[in-house]
Amino acid sequence: MFENVIQGIFSAAFLASILRVTTPILLPSLGALVSDRAGVINIGLEGLMLVSAFIGVVVSAYSQQWFGPEVGQAIGPWLGLVAGVSGSVLLALLLGFFHLKLKADNILAGLALNILGSAGTVAVMYELTGDRGNTSTLASMQVPFIQLPEFINQIPVIGPFLFTVFDNQSAMTWIAFLSVIFVWFLLYRTPFGFHLRATGENPAAAASVGIPVIRTRYMALMLSGVFAGLGGIHLSMGYLTLFQRDMAAGRGYIALATPLLGGNMPLGTAIASAIFGFFDALAIRIGTLQIPSQLPQMIPFVATVMALVIYALQARQVQIIRAQRAAQGTDFNPTYWRVLQRLSVLHVVLGMIAVIGIIVAISLFAAPKGFGGEAEAYPLGLVVAIASVILIALNLPFISHVERIRQRTLFSGVATLVTLGAYLTLFLLLFRPALPLAIGGGLLLAALVWVMLGGLNLVRSAPTGAQPA
C-alpha cells in the first residue's frame, strides 16, 4: 500500500488534485496580497471564508424553494456564489470600519472576525438545520465543472496527461488561476493598482499627491473579501454540497503567509500557494495509509512553519549580502553575489527537505502498522533518521552563515552533490532502474544543478576584497 501511495504521487491524477486543493489557498492568498500591498493586513480571512461558504450553501439550497426546481437548479449555484461573496465583502468592510474609521487594532479586529465566522456560522446552522456539525439536510448545489474538448485527449504524448490534469475541474479552480493574471494586471497596469501600491509603501507621500488613502484601503479590503469569499465558496460548493463546521481548517491563516513567501508578487503568491497545495494533497494521499489521522493532517501546518523559517533565513541572508555590497562599494561584484544567494537558497531548501525526513522517521516509529509493521518500519525509520541528520549537518554551516559558501566553496559543492544527489537518487529509484544507475544519475543531475546555479563560476572567480561578514 505504501508503494502504491508513492507511485500515485507521481501521476497526472495527483497533479489534478494539487490544482483542486490549491484553489481554496490561492484565492484568499490573492486577497491577502491585495490588502497587504495597500498597507492594511486582513487577518480575518479565515472568518470571511467560513461566512461565505455557509451563506453560499444556504442560498443555493433555498433558491430552489424561492424560484422553483428548474430555475433554482439553473441559477442556484451562481446565486449562492454572489450571496456568499457579498457576505464576505461586508465583513471585510466591517473590518475596515473598525480599523480605518474607529482606529481599532487591525490584528484584534481580524481575530474577532475569525471568531465571529466560526461561532456565528455554527449558531445559524443549528437554527436552520438542528445540527451543529454540517448542513447535510439542506439540498445545496455545486458550482459547475468545466469539461475540456475531447480532441485534447487525442494530442500525441502530452494530450492524455493534460486532459487528465485539467478536465472536469471546478469552475472555481479556473477562476482562481485566472485571478492571478487579473491581480497582476490590476496592480501593475492600472492607475488604481499604482495608487494601491503607493498607499501601502508610503501613505503620507500618496496622500500628498492627492491619492485617497482611506478609500483605497477600503477598496483593497473589499477585493480581499471577494477573493476570500470565492475561496470559501470553493470549499462548500466546489466539490462538496454542504457546509461543515470550521471547514476552512486554517487555510485563511496559511493565506497570510503565502504573499510573503511569494515576494509579494501575484505569480510568486501562486507558486507558494501551489507548494502548500502539494503538501495538502500529499496529506490526503498519505491519509490512505493505516496511520493515525493526525499525522497527515499536520503536514500542511508543518509546511507552513518550514516555509516561514525559509523566509526568515532568506531575509537574514539578503541583509548579509546587502551589508557586503555596502562594505565593498565599487569592488562589489553583483553577479558573484547573485550566484552566492542562489546557492544559499539551495542549501536552505535541501536542509528543509532533510527536516521532512526527520518527520517521516518519527511517523515510522509512531505508527509502524501503516508502513508494513514494526519489522519494516523501525529499520527504515532508523535509516531515514540517521541519513536526515547527516544531510542537515552537511548543509547547516551554509544556512547559518551564508559567507561560508564562498569561504569553503568546494565543501559547499560537495554538500550539495551529496544531499541533492541522495534526493534525486530516491526519485529515480521510483522508476525501478538498477541501483548504480540511479546513484550515478542522481549525482550527475545534482552536479548539473550546481553548475547551472553558478557553483563552478564561484570556484573560479572569487571577488577581490570579499571579506567574511
* Overall spatial form: globular
* Average of per-residue pLDDT values: 84
Structural class from helices and strands? mainly alpha
Structurally, how many domains make up the residues?
Answer: 2
- How would a crystallographer describe the biggest sheet? 2 strands, antiparallel
Count all strands and give the number: 2
**Helix and strand run:** HHHHHEHEHHHHHHHHHHHHHH
Rg calculated over all Cα atoms: 25 Å
Strand content: under 5%
Through-space gap between termini: 50 Å
Tally of DSSP helical segments: 20
Into which percent range does the helicity of residues fall? over 70%
Kindly report the spatial arrangement of strands forming the biggest sheet: 1-2
Low-confidence stretches: 463-469
Describe the secondary structure blueprint for this structure.
Blueprint: H1 2-9, H2 12-37, H3 45-67, H4 69-101, H5 106-129, E1 145-146, H6 159-166, E2 169-170, H7 171-189, H8 191-201, H9 203-208, H10 213-237, H11 251-261, H12 266-286, H13 294-297, H14 299-328, H15 334-366, H16 374-400, H17 404-407, H18 409-429, H19 435-452, H20 455-460
Antiparallel strand pairs: 1-2
Helix pairs in contact: 2-6, 2-7, 2-10, 2-11, 2-12, 3-4, 3-5, 3-10, 3-11, 4-5, 4-10, 7-8, 8-10, 11-12, 11-14, 12-14, 14-15, 15-16, 16-18, 18-19
